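Methods: example folding runs. The two proteins below were folded one after another, and each record is reproduced exactly as written to the output file, sequence line first and structure-token line second.
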Amino acid sequence: MTLMQNLPRPASVDRTSETDTYDARDLIRNGLKADIVLDGQTYTLRITRAGKLILTK
């Protein structure tokens, strides 16, 4: 199973720009944080108490 198979389905797809749109709460399933890997580097995406998104390395 690949990592892409574990992603939630896009909330919507913008057919004019080919951009998938994801709800952050679907990516952050435990409500706290999600790890995102790009080229071997791990980043952390989290939702603050104020409802803002923070992406850190």
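Second run, written to the same file directly after the first:
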Amino acid sequence: MHAWIDQALWCLDRRQAAVLVTVAWVQGSAPREAGAKMLVSAGHQWLTIGGGHLEWKAAESARARLRADDGPDRWIEALPLGPALGQCCGGMVHLLFERLRESDRGWLEAVRAGLQSPAGRVREVRLGGDGAAPCVRVSEPDAAAPGGIDADAGRLLRPGPGQGCLTLRETIRPDPLHVVIFGAGHVGQALVHILGTLPCRVTWVDARDELFPGTVPANVSIEATDTPEAVIDEAPPDSCFLIMTHDHALDQRLCEQLLRRDDVAYFGLIGSQTKRRKFEHRFQARGIPPERYARIVCPIGEPGIEGKQPAVIAVAVAAQLLRLRSERERLAGAQARTEAPAH
């Protein structure tokens, strides 16, 4: 999730002093992964790096710097969770603190613009060394400085003697889980409410423009269209699709359009087993091979979560999508380790 970018720019727009806190490096067990971020101002806090004493200590350090407004704008603190903070995780967390100023607007906007590309952007934070001032550099992933590592979540690069700056390099890219939802009814509303808080991108489709709320989460885009089939054709590969409109005939039409694609990560259709059987008979009558429609998930939702209330269905579907996301991440990680060159 990249809500921290818009929140940081919001603070700059209002001249509200704030500190960006990033989990830069984790050793052992910790509440959050490297790359997790939060923003701290004198009176507010946004997002989380794991809660508990760690987060309280980080907010205290950030606010102390805001009150004094002296010292470096960027610094690292290493916090042992067990001895120092009394947390059971027992690991070591290195936090990067960045006092944001108007001069930071450029790199924030560059990172936000980079999220329009699947590759995203590399953000490199140099913390000084050999008399150099701290700086932030944003580049395309293939233009990253040589000799570093591409740490998707964030990682400290520790220089050897005479090798310059302590550096954090992180790749910030849009979440690979793209969900396309057809239908702005009760279940669609409940599902978008949940997905708006999760690491994914959502395209929400319905012809009935009046059903969409006035505001939606930052990771949700609305398509008010009477040609929803075009959204199917334009969606990127490996997208997840959920068909849950108010009209069974429209559901069937969208299903048939979606069955033409072979690059779909998830294909969910709201309804019962009875609806599934009826649709299968119709597909068969149209000459669609059974192996094409066998991949449709209907009923939708993680097995074992029962209930017909919109919120319950939404939770079950969100759980199913998150499981899919985790499986894809594990597969990608295993593939990367297999393809990594031997040293």
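Comment on the second run: The first strand starts at residue 18 and ends at 27.
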